[in-house]
Structure to design on (343 residues):
């Protein structure tokens, strides 16, 4: 196996230590993904450096110039505190002709902007929940075409930021209150969608031109009540104590017919291509009892933590974590941006 110089790029507060010996689970949780990726690359024999990005790129520029990494392993999710700006850092990597892992700038832009995602997919006849945008700083206007119950979330933030049980609203007063909450607390536009009741299903996709879809994965809400299990809140997704208390698990979707599973694979690949994604992604769906399917979100560069959904769905088809991370590196090395087409 060829050994590469790999520059692990992440937020300045998430640079992992060389060892986690003596640290508590809570302390490790802060940089668990970064540590898993870093230690796996190191154990595979690669020459690995980690760099933390805050609100400037001078150290990144100097490291690329002086160390000349074969590839930057991109774990960055924001720049200068703004989630949508990670695409500009990736665009910078392209401008300096540096190979990198994960999604390209255009795919990041289209998938990070949830409204733009819906508009693009509407043209491709992919079903998403009916919606209305409530811009930050503008007066609340009662929606006339949406039907309650409605689901309120940030139009730009990810990882369930701002999502709680109160995000599902059944009347206009509750809608106004929740939109105000998103504006004031999350400081972003509020996206209001018609709530889709049904199974919460995920599917991972790898590739640049030739795509591989992983098995359909499902979020099992465990012992939570029907009302509580309506949405995947931040606490439900990330709090292990909460998950254990309620028996919340994820695993391979059960009971899907071969035709339904094939339909998910085809749909996931269509969406991936329509949004010009590359590297790897996770597509989040809801499927109603009648079999109708709606895309909830397209997640570029999703969580790579060992033991979490994407890695586990890869393991289910025989791709262990080392092979999983190696696949991502290979896709980064082989991606063909504009500059490589003109070499």
């Amino acid at each position: 196996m060829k050994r590469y110089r790999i520059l692990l790029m992440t937020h300045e507060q998430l640079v992992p230590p060389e060892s986690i010996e003596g640290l508590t689970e809570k302390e490790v949780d802060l940089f668990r993904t970064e540590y898993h990726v870093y230690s796996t690359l190191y154990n595979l024999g690669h020459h690995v450096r980690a760099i933390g990005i805050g609100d400037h790129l001078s150290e990144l520029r100097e490291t690329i110039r002086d160390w000349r990494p074969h590839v930057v392993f991109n774990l960055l999710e924001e720049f200068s505190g703004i989630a949508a700006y990670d695409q500009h850092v990736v665009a910078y990597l392209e401008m300096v002709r540096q190979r990198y892992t994960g999604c390209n700038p255009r795919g990041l832009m289209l998938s990070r902007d949830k409204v733009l995602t819906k508009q693009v997919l509407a043209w491709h006849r992919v079903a998403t929940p009916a919606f209305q945008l409530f811009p930050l700083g503008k007066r609340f206007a009662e929606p006339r075409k949406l039907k309650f119950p409605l689901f309120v979330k940030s139009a730009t933030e990810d990882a369930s930021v701002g999502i709680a049980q109160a995000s599902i609203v059944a009347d206009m007063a509750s809608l106004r209150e929740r939109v105000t909450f998103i504006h004031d607390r999350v400081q972003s536009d509020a996206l209001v969608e018609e709530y889709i009741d049904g199974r919460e299903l995920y599917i991972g996709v790898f590739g640049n031109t030739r795509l591989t879809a992983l098995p359909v994965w499902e979020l099992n809400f465990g012992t939570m009540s029907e009302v509580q299990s309506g949405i995947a809140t931040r606490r439900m997704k990330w709090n292990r104590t909460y998950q254990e208390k309620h028996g919340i698990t994820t695993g391979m979707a059960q009971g899907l017919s071969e035709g339904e599973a094939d339909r998910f694979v085809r749909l996931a690949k269509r969406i991936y291509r329509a949004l010009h994604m590359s590297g790897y992604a996770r597509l989040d769906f809801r499927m109603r009892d009648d079999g109708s399917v709606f895309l909830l979100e397209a997640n570029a560069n999703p969580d790579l933590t060992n033991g979490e959904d994407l890695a586990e769905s890869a393991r289910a088809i025989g791709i262990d974590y080392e092979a999983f991370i190696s696949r991502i590196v290979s896709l980064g090395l082989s991606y063909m941006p504009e500059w490589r087409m003109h070499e």
